[in-house]
Each structure stands twice: as structure tokens, then as C-alpha cells.
């Protein structure tokens, strides 16, 4: 529209300039009006051009302001992402620290359980010995003298049970027998008690004597394969292999805990450590599945919290996408 007006104004102006130069025509009233209209049209074109220039300036200012706003938003988003990343790293570090503390508490709890079991066994043995001694005391006591008169106002003693003399060194029928303590020893007579074996192995593990502890945990598994402490022993053997970087051996022992001792208290942490070992072996998909299985089976456990943090740090959703 502006170009057309400009062309029209130029044409009218050219006509206006040419007409007065011709001597054959006199200046008429219509020509004056035409010149006036041309002048008005030129003024309108100039005002329109000025208005367009002003609007273009305003649009440039608005575009510049929008660009500045976008740049500021981009800077804020970058700063926020860095802050979130820093917080995530700090949270992961705290989670790992808490998990380590929980694991240390679990190890201490296992040691305390082993000590309590040993104390209970010792108390049971003492009670059995006391009971045996109390039952054998009447048989070992001496009978009162025949000429000793019974004290006054004392009821006569009950008649002694009839006894028959024993033969070939056997006690008489009326002689009370001392009850020997019941021996609830291990299945294999040559093996020490399971609590002693486990306590010794756990003590060596806590003292970082991993080679010796591994051999002792192997004895627990060998002599007492059906005992709950055998599951704990497999777990600590896996931990020793994991610390040594033998992830495949560790995974095998974690699997023994998960498959052979499903009710053991080391099952959640075995899921977690197996997943971490698989990820360390670059078997990421299998490790993610193991961590998700842990979260599904034990959603409120500390190990599940650590598994969520691990998956989040890897950029992997907790639940698989369908």
C-alpha cells in the first residue's frame, strides 16, 4: 500500500511539474486543487512513513527485551540445573553414607546375636548342670545314724521305697538316676558349635582379616548348611569378593542367599549389592532389573531408598516404561 501511494504521489507530482511548463495552458482552479491534493498526499505519506518507523522501533525494542528475558531465563535454568545436580550428588553421597552405617549396624547386630546365642547356650548348660547336681544330691548323701533320736514334734519320715539289689554293677531299682544334660550338638561331632564358628568369622571380618574370615564362613556353610547363619555366611563371603573386585564370584554368593535363604534378613541388601555388581560388570540392564526387583519386594527398606537414588543418578526411571 505504501509503495502504491508513493508511485501515485510521484506521478501526480510529475504531472504538476510538467503542466505549468507548457505555455499553451493557463493555470486553472482545478490544477491548484490538484497540486493541493498532491501536497496533502505527500504529507500523508510522510506521516505514514514516520509512523511505520516509530512502530518498527517499538517492535525492535520489544524483540530485544524478549531476547534479554530469554537469555536471563536460560541462565536461571542453567544455574538451577547445576544446583539440582549438586544437591543430587550430595544426596547420593549421604545415601551411600547412611547405607554404609546401616550395614555396619547390621554387622554389629549379627555379632550381638551370635554373642547372645552363645550366652543362652552357656546359661542352658549351667542350668542343666545345676539340675543334675540337685537331682544327684539325695543319692550321694549319708543316711542318719540309727541311734539318733528324732527331734520333738517332728513327723516321722516317709517310708523308704522298696529296693532290690542290682546286678553286675547296675543301680538298684529304687535308686534315683542323675539326669545328664541333653546335648544338642551340631550334626557333625567334629565341628565346633555354629555360634562359635560364626562369631569367630564375623570378628575376623570386622577386623578386615578377609581371607581368614572367608575360610571360617566356609566352615559355617559346610557344617551347618541348613542353619540361618549359613545364609549370613554366604552374604559375607559375597561381600569379601565384592571388596576384592571379584564381582562375578560375589554375584554367585548373593544368588545363594536369595535362592536358598529367602527369609534371611540379608535378602534386601543382597538384591542391592547384586545389582551394583552387575552394573560394575557393565551389565546395566540386568543391574537395573535387580534394583527394580528390590524396590518392588521391599519398598520401605533402606536398601530400596539407596536403589532409587542409584537409578535416579543413572537417569533411569524406577518403574519400567511400557
Textual characterization of the structure:
Helix 2 (29-140) packs across helix 3 and helix 5 packs antiparallel against helix 6 (247-260). The chain has nine helices and no strands. The chain has a domain at 2-80. The chain is rod-shaped and about 160 Å long. The two termini are 58 Å apart. The protein is mainly α. The chain has helices spanning 2-21, 29-140, 194-206, 210-223, 228-243, 247-260, 267-280, 284-297, 302-313.
The fraction of residues assigned to DSSP E strands is: under 5%
Distance between the termini: 58 Å
Estimated helix fraction? over 70%
Spatial shape = rod-shaped
Radius of gyration: 50 Å
The averaged pLDDT comes out at: 78
The parts where pLDDT drops under 50 for at least 5 residues are 139-154, 160-188
State the oligomer. Answer: single chain
Give the SSE string. HHHHHHHHH
Number of helices: 9
Q: Tell me the structural class.
A: mainly alpha
Describe the biggest sheet?
Answer: none
- Count of DSSP strands: 0
Amino acid at each position: 500500500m505504501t509503495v502504491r501511494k508513493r508511485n501515485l504521489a510521484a506521478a501526480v507530482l510529475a504531472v504538476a511539474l510538467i503542466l505549468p511548463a507548457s505555455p499553451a495552458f493557463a493555470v486553472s482552479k482545478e490544477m491548484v486543487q490538484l497540486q493541493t491534493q498532491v501536497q496533502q498526499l505527500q504529507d500523508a505519506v510522510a506521516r505514514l512513513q514516520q509512523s511505520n518507523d516509530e512502530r518498527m522501533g517499538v517492535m525492535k525494542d520489544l524483540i530485544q527485551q524478549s531476547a534479554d528475558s530469554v537469555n536471563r531465563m536460560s541462565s536461571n535454568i542453567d544455574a538451577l540445573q547445576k544446583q539440582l545436580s549438586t544437591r543430587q550428588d550430595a544426596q547420593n553421597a549421604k545415601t551411600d553414607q547412611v547405607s554404609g552405617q546401616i550395614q555396619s549396624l547390621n554387622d554389629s547386630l549379627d555379632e550381638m546375636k551370635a554373642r547372645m546365642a552363645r550366652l543362652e547356650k552357656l546359661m542352658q548348660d549351667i542350668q542343666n548342670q545345676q539340675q543334675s547336681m540337685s537331682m544327684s544330691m539325695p543319692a550321694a548323701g549319708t543316711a542318719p545314724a540309727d541311734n539318733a533320736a528324732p527331734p520333738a514334734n517332728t513327723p516321722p519320715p516317709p517310708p523308704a521305697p522298696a529296693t532290690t539289689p542290682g546286678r553286675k554293677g547296675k543301680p538298684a531299682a529304687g535308686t534315683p538316676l542323675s539326669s545328664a544334660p541333653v546335648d544338642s550338638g551340631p550334626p557333625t561331632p567334629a565341628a565346633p558349635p555354629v555360634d562359635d564358628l560364626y562369631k569367630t568369622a564375623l570378628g575376623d571380618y570386622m577386623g578386615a582379616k578377609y581371607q581368614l574370615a572367608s575360610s571360617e564362613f566356609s566352615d559355617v556353610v559346610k557344617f551347618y548348611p541348613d542353619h540361618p547363619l549359613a545364609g549370613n555366611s554366604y552374604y559375607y563371603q559375597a561381600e569379601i569378593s565384592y571388596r576384592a573386585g571379584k564381582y562375578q564370584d560375589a554375584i554367585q554368593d548373593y544368588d545363594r542367599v536369595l535362592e536358598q535363604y529367602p527369609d534371611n534378613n540379608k535378602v534386601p541388601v543382597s538384591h542391592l549389592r547384586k545389582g551394583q555388581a552387575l552394573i560394575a560388570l557393565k551389565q546395566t540392564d540386568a543391574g537395573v532389573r535387580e534394583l527394580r526387583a528390590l524396590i518392588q519386594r521391599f519398598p520401605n527398606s533402606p536398601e530400596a531408598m539407596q536403589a532409587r537414588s542409584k537409578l535416579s543418578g543413572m537417569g533411569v526411571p524406577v518403574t519400567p516404561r511400557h
